[in-house]
Amino acid sequence: MKLSDLLKVEHIIPNLKGQTKEEIINELVDLFKDDPKVEDLEKARESVLEREKIMSTGVGKGFAIPHGKTNAIKEMLAAFGKSNDEIDYQSLDNQPVHLVFLLIGKDNLVSSHIKLLSRISRMMNSDDFRSSLLKAQTSEEILGIFRKEEEKYFDV
To answer: Please, which of 62, 93, 97, 114 could form a disulfide with 87 given CB 3.0 to 4.6 Å?
Structure first.
């Protein structure tokens, strides 16, 4: 499974409105309102917010990977958002966040969930990839950048 197959144009926000970690997470989770893959949106949201309480998913270099696992969804969900403003995400490097990748997995698909998180982390270590995402203006452009970067990796 590829991130670029999981991520859809309608689940990408090229200019996030939220100013706080919680607002950003809610904005991304809300993209799945009325989505047939979601059985209970509030439980999905809660899984991400509860995980965030354990330790910040602001992994550094201006990037965050909020994630959670729940059986309130039928299949894995992914969303991406970019903010032109600095978001205080309580990141591990104490730097503000501009790029946020949301991943919500099913409780019984732990291996796939971990592999996808690992792939996101590896991709985000690329300065060129992050820079391209920051310059992107549209959802389509962002998805294209993910597809191009992911060509360098094997399938999960």
So the answer is: 97
